[in-house]
Every structure is written in C-alpha cells, then in structure tokens.
Write a structure and sequence with these properties.
The protein folds into three domains: 3-189, Rossmann fold, CATH 3.40.50.620; 213-301, Tyrosyl-Transfer RNA Synthetase (Orthogonal Bundle); 339-434, Roll (PH-domain like). Helices cover 53% and strands 11% of the residues. It is built from 17 helices and nine strands. A hairpin with a 5-residue loop joins strand 7 and strand 8 (378-382). It binds tryptophan. Residues 6-8, 10, 43, 46, 140, 143-144, 152, 154, 158 line the site of tryptophan.
C-alpha cells in the first residue's frame, strides 16, 4: 500500500545546516523511495503565531521554498505547497476545534512552557499568549489529517502534537463516522539523524542557542566564518587529537562517506592541526552545498517561478483536500438543502456564462490550448504540444474529470486556484449533463 509521508516547516527565519541534515535531506531521500507519496509544505499559518512582521514572513516562506527546491526536491513526485494556499486546512481546523477538549490543549508542551515562564516571571499566567499559540496543535492536526498521512517525520519536540492529532482523529471518526473512518491515524517518525547535528559549541544546532552554521545565507564566506568559530580543544598542530568526542568530526560525518570518515579520523590521530581540519570540513560541506547554493540563488532571483511551482502544488493538494472536506461537511450536517429542480432558464443562463477551452497553433508549430473565463480572464495555459490530437485529448479529459486532471495535465494555472476550480467544475457539470 502507498504510504503517505507528510511534513511541514514553519516559515520564520532561514534554515541552517542542522535543518538540512535533520529534515530536508532525509525527507527528499525518502520521497525518492518507491511506494511513498510525499507531502511537503511551508507552515506559514503556523509562522503567523510566532511572528507579526509581514516582510519577514514573506521573505522566509520564499527562502524556505527555494531551499527545498535547490536541495533537489522533485516536484513531479512530491506534493509541494504552502499551507496558506489550501483554504480547506483552516476549515478543517475549525471542525476539529469543535471536538477537541480544552483540557487536552492545556497540556500541550509549547503552551505549558509559556505559562510556566509567565508564572516564574511573576506575570499573569496567560500574559502574551494568543489563541493561535493555544490552538497550534489543532491546526497541525488539520495539516496532517487533511491528507490522511500515515507517517510524519518530525523532531522530538513535535511528537506530542502527532499524538494529539491521533486523538482528535479518533474522536472525530467516532462521533461522525458511523462505522466509516474519515481519517488515518498518523504515526510520528523521529529520525535519529534529526537530533544529531551539533552546533558550533557542541550542543544541538539550534537558533535558540545561537550556535548555527547557516545553510545558504551569506554564501561560502559565511559558511567558512561559522566553521572558523567551531569550538575545539587546545591541542597544537602535530599533537594527536581524539576524533571521538569532537563535534567538528560529527559535523564532518554528516557530509562524508564511510571511507572519508575513517581517513579524517586517521589524520587527526596523526596530529592534523585544527585549522587544517576546519579547512577539510569546509571543503567537504561546500562540495555538497555549493551546487545547491548556486541553484538557490538562481531561484531566489526568480520568485515568480517559485510562485508557479507552488500554485501547481496547491492544485494537486486541493484535488485531495476538497473532496475529503466535502465529505466531512456532509458528515457534521453542513449539507446542501435539497437541490432545486434546476429551472431551465437558470440552466440556460449558467450555460451562456460558461468558461471555454480554446485550441490553437502558434508560430513555433506546436499545438496549444487555454481555458478562458466567460469574462475573458485567462485561467489555464497549456505548454506547446507536438500533436494537435494530444491537445484535444487533454481538453476532453479536463472537461470530464475537472480539477482532478490538473495534476497531470501539461498546463500552468494562471489565475487564482479558486477561479480555475470553479470553472472546471462548471464545465464538468455540463459534460455530465450531456453524457
Ligand atoms: N510544528 C512544526 C514545527 O514547528 C511544523 C509543522 C506544522 C508540521 N504543521 C506540521 C510538521 C504538520 C509536521 C506536520 O516543526
């Protein structure tokens, strides 16, 4: 059975080497396994909880998206999107909020830590605590349950949130399922690697310890400067060094093959100077990161290209989210009133205002099609196709299957995803009626 793996990164700030080694690199490697369907996203609604600086939010989500892509994410295999492009997620959040007990949220670590800090400082227990922070775990549960993820790779600090997601899912299934389960119960996956990379001072690499090595920001110069600040012991050049306890070696290991690891250890035992060791470490990291940084910079110079990729990802994600949410609305009783027998005048009016597909050939001799709204707005634009027949077949498929066909179709979504979905749904209705 296909395993769905899902993970998100909160978009505040930039990423460091620890995020790359612990989260991004293993996630991309896992997405290449067969039998795995991956969902990776920018948790930008979560970012709003911690940050009220709009420019910082904007920049961070762009940087983090560019980082995933530069690190080799294959968006034809992975559903890659921004949380805030999926309106079904906040809608699901509300449905879940209504079945989540307040007592359980009182026990969430992040909230409890804030309360404890307030109490210790002699402040009101809830000083500075927003409802966003308080219900953070419910939004996270919606992220996960929306796509029925089986596995959720996270850091240790997030395991409690996955357990909460399971509880909420169970409760919802039980209350409304009538024997049918809407949600898969997700499993947290804490990879050993996730916690391992030490920072400059040997503690876990983390922004909050101010001991990070930046991933791309500042270029190779910043990388080199950070490495120069790695704390080592005071053994002099020529003196034998103990590679086992050294966090410089642990960082080296994260970028080296077994043979390179052994060779580095031998050199240190033979008296390699720490300065030299740092140069080796720099070369080792730069060999892996350097080419990615070049791609990162190229991507950052073309935000519109990233935007297009994320819009396409949102279409794919919503192809799954929208039908599940429709089922859930139905289940809780948010149902349509009995459909009226469509008065034929109404139907006629709707028909005359329909969007339409246009097929044409360009000077490049390729065949194209596009979807244009009744008011002339361009909604979808195809790529150039070698065969006119192919264009015709895609148009037929989009009319028949609607948004579900978008993920595979050779098109870019030009307009707001909502418009495109509505237009395709309207054409699909017509198609169904005439079938
Ligand atoms: N809370 C996670 C973090 O800060 C980010 C996140 C948001 C997430 N939604 C998620 C991770 C869903 C996994 C699944 O690290």
């Amino acid at each position: 059975m296909t395993q769905r793996v899902l993970t998100g990164i909160t978009t505040t700030g930039t990423l460091h080497l620890g995020n790359f080694v612990g989260a991004i690199r293993p996630a991309i490697a896992a997405s290449r396994e067969s039998g795995v369907e991956s969902y990776f996203f920018m948790a930008d609604y979560h970012a709003l909880i911690k940050c009220d600086e709009p420019d910082r939010i904007e920049r961070s989500r762009l940087q983090i998206a560019a980082t995933w892509l530069a690190a080799g994410l294959d968006t034809s295999r992975v559903v890659f999107y921004r949380q805030s492009d999926i309106p079904e997620i906040p809608e699901l959040t509300w449905l879940l909020t209504c079945v989540t007990s307040k007592g359980q949220m009182n026990r969430a670590h992040a909230y409890k830590a804030s309360v404890d800090a307030n109490v210790a400082a002699g402040e009101d227990a809830d000083a500075g605590i927003t409802m966003g922070l308080y219900s953070y775990p419910i939004l996270m549960a919606a992220d996960i349950l929306m796509f029925n993820a089986h596995r959720v790779p996270v850091g240790k600090d997030q395991v409690q949130h996955i357990e909460m997601a399971r509880d909420v899912a169970q409760r919802f299934n039980h209350l409304f399922g009538r024997g049918q389960d809407f949600f898969v119960l997700p499993q947290a996956e804490v990879e050993a690697e996730m916690e391992l990379l030490p920072g400059l001072d040997g503690r876990k690499m983390s922004k909050s310890y101010d001991n990070v090595i930046p991933l791309f920001e500042g270029g190779s110069k910043a990388l080199k400067e950070a490495i120069a600040r790695i704390v080592t012991d005071s053994r002099l050049p020529g003196e034998p060094k103990d590679p086992e306890g050294s966090h410089l070696v642990a960082i080296f290991d994260a970028f080296a093959t077994p043979a390179q690891r052994a060779a580095f250890r031998d050199e240190l035992r033979a008296g390699l100077a720490w300065g030299e060791a740092k140069q080796r470490l720099f070369d080792q990291i730069e060999a892996e990161i350097g080419p990615m940084r070049a791609r990162y910079e190229a991507l950052m110079a073309q935000p519109e290209q990233i935007e297009a990729i994320l819009q396409a990802g949102a279409v794919k994600a919503r192809t799954l989210a929208a039908p599940l949410l429709a089922t859930l609305r139905e289940a809780v009783g948010l149902r349509r009133f009995q459909p009226l027998k469509a008065a034929s005048a109404e139907a006629h009016k709707a028909k005359s205002a329909l969007p339409s597909f246009k097929q044409y050939r360009e000077a490049d001799n390729l065949f194209y099609f596009k979807l244009v709204a009744a008011d002339g707005e361009l909604l979808l634009q195809s790529r150039g196709l070698l065969q006119g027949r192919e264009a015709g077949q895609w148009v037929a498929r989009l009319k028949k299957d609607g948004a579900a066909a978008l993920a595979d179709a050779p098109v870019s979504v030009v307009a707001a995803v909502d418009h495109v979905h509505a237009a395709l749904a309207a054409l699909q209705d017509v198609e169904a009626q005439s079938a």
